[in-house]
Design goal:
The complex is a heterodimer of chains A (about 120) and B (about 400). Chain A is α+β, with helices and mostly antiparallel strands and about 120 residues long. Chain A has a single domain, classed as PRC-barrel domain (SH3 type barrels), CATH 2.30.30. Chain A contains 4 helices and 7 strands. Chain B is an all-alpha fold. Chain B contains 16 helices and no strands. Chain B starts with a helix and ends in a 6-residue tail after the last helix. The chains are: A alpha+beta (about 120), B mainly alpha (about 400).
């Protein structure tokens, strides 16, 4: 980002790629959990990932949330290592319970020779 | 020296990679119907794809972000999902049409039944994707597609009236059927600026690990590669204008396209044309198949990329396998690949603004792009093309209905 103090949450964080400590892509920032909005000092406390969160993201989002299986994963803000065009996390996706769809799909792909 | 070599390789791959079944169908049919009168539209389309592919390549090199990442960020989840669905439908239609094209060419070469060759074609593509590394796929199909240069030789040998050819490069409106002329203009722009080209191009830049150092390579690749791809389009249209228009032939078969090289150059011309079409269309099938998987993975944040082993990006792998399977079902239904191509190109035109607006916005965002942000020229051209794309998107489907798909 241009200056470290300034981050546009809508454009610079929401919907961005999550990358774990091993460089694995493991979901997108589907929503943010804020605190202190009423008090006038809003603060991001967590990143929310997973189909149930899409319900708050437009009409098509509601439909997609209804169709897609999966649970919400909450990543506390303390787990964020750095933000550039992607959001880099401090731990592995297994530890954070992210990217589990890829783990499930791997069982199918492993079955094909040469995978 | 190594750098020059690398640029040359990239350009060669881009020339062969530009022409796909949409370009073949629209350029040849436009030539057969209007002679050289629509050549200028190809120029407009080629400059458009150069402008936007250069932008996406630059964004990918500087920020490591492919196109669908930018689409979700700028359009949000809801509208972005709409763009994803539209692009997946168009990708699947295009993929099925390219696979049908591969089978038709194999049929002309072997004489075996069409449906058997669809299976052969799909199996061949799947094995090529599974086994070959990314740059090999690009090169094998790109270089094979260069056999299409036979149409440039054919065009010269047919001795077209070069005066009318040069007149065709001057923008004008036809004196004859204006609506059909407009339909073909829209189709030619759509075929030249198909969105899968930028999805594939930008994801490929991330696959190959481009950095800001590769910005020169990106510019050369997009300008010279797509520019020379446009040259192939001219050759196809001029051939059709010189050969089919005087005879009143309306080429509705892939084999008729190849006649454009056979008549002036004989059997060797025919063979080169068929090989060129096979590799160009086969390569485009792989590009569209990957584009579909890239878009899904990028929208939902899955691991993706050919540089990973298939098990390293499992949902991405299942996605491209599933797309190949769906394309197989679509084309096995017996739908005519040429007709499907026309639908795919016209529908892709409607999806164009949803792809190109986010690219223009991100390429202007200094927080990612730093000093590599769009300059004045890129923005002026980018905005000009947004207007063109908007007009084309609004008129595409009405024109298709009014002209009965260019039949008049």
């Amino acid at each position: 980002m241009s200056s470290p103090e300034e981050l546009d949450l809508g454009l610079g964080l929401l919907d961005h790629q999550l990358v774990d400590s091993e460089g694995r892509r493991c979901g997108n920032v589907d929503d943010l959990e804020l605190e202190g909005v009423r008090e006038g000092s809003p603060r991001v406390v967590a990143i929310l990932v997973g189909p149930p969160v899409w319900r708050g993201r437009g009409r098509l989002g509601r439909l997609a949330a209804w169709l897609a299986p999966g649970q919400t994963v909450r990543i506390p803000w303390e787990e964020v290592e750095a933000i550039d065009s992607a959001v880099h996390l401090k731990r592995t996706s297994q530890e954070l319970r992210l990217g589990r769809g890829d783990d499930r799909a791997r069982r199918w792909v492993d079955w094909i020779p040469g995978s | 020296m190594k750098k020059i070599f690398q640029i040359a390789l990239g350009i060669l791959a881009a020339i062969g990679g530009f022409v796909d079944i949409g370009d073949l169908v629209f350029n040849v049919q436009a030539g057969a119907k209007f002679g050289y009168e629509l050549l200028w539209v190809v120029v407009v389309g080629v400059v458009g794809i150069i402008v936007y592919s250069e932008m996406c390549g630059r964004v990918a090199a500087v920020s490591k972000r492919p196109v669908f990442d930018a689409i979700r960020e700028r359009l949000g989840f809801g509208v972005g999902l709409g763009a994803l669905i539209a692009s997946e439908i168009v990708n699947l239609m295009t993929l099925a049409a390219e696979v049908g094209g591969v089978a038709l060419v194999l049929q002309l070469l072997s004489g075996l039944p069409y449906r058997v060759l669809i299976l052969v074609g799909i199996a061949g593509l799947a094995v090529a994707i599974w086994v070959a590394p990314f740059d090999w796929i690009e090169r094998i199909f790109g270089y094979g597609g260069l056999a299409l240069l036979v149409f440039a030789v054919g065009a010269v040998k047919l001795h077209p009236d070069w005066g009318s050819v040069s007149h065709g490069f001057v923008p004008h409106v036809s004196s004859s059927d204006k609506l059909v002329y407009a339909y073909f203009a829209v189709g030619l722009l759509g075929a030249a600026m198909t969105p899968y080209e930028v999805y594939f191009y930008s994801s490929g830049a991330v696959e190959e690990g481009w950095t800001p150092k590769d910005i020169g390579l990106n510019r050369a690749n997009s300008m010279i590669g797509y520019g020379l791809g446009g040259f192939l389009s001219f050759a196809l249209m001029i051939t059709a204008g010189a050969l089919f228009l005087p005879l009143g032939i309306e080429p509705e078969l892939i084999g008729t396209v190849a006649l454009g090289a056979q008549v002036p150059l004989g059997a060797i011309g025919l063979l080169l044309a068929l090989v060129g079409i096979l590799f160009a269309v086969g390569g485009a099938a792989i590009d569209t198949c990957f584009s579909g998987a890239y878009n899904l993975a990028q929208f939902f944040g899955w691991e993706w990329g050919k540089y990973r082993r298939p098990s390293g990006a499992p949902r991405f792998t299942l996605a491209w396998l599933a797309l190949l399977g769906l394309a197989l079902l679509v084309i096995m239904s017996g739908i005519d690949p040429v007709l499907l191509t026309e639908y795919a190109v016209i529908f892709s035109v409607v999806a164009l603004p949803l792809t190109y607006i986010p690219i223009l916005l991100v390429a202007n965002d200094r927080s990612y792009m730093g000093r590599y942000v769009n300059g004045r020229l890129a923005n002026a051209l980018g905005l000009f093309y947004l207007v063109v794309i908007g007009l084309v998107a609004l008129s595409a489907i009405p024109l298709m209905i009014l002209t009965n798909q260019g039949q008049g």
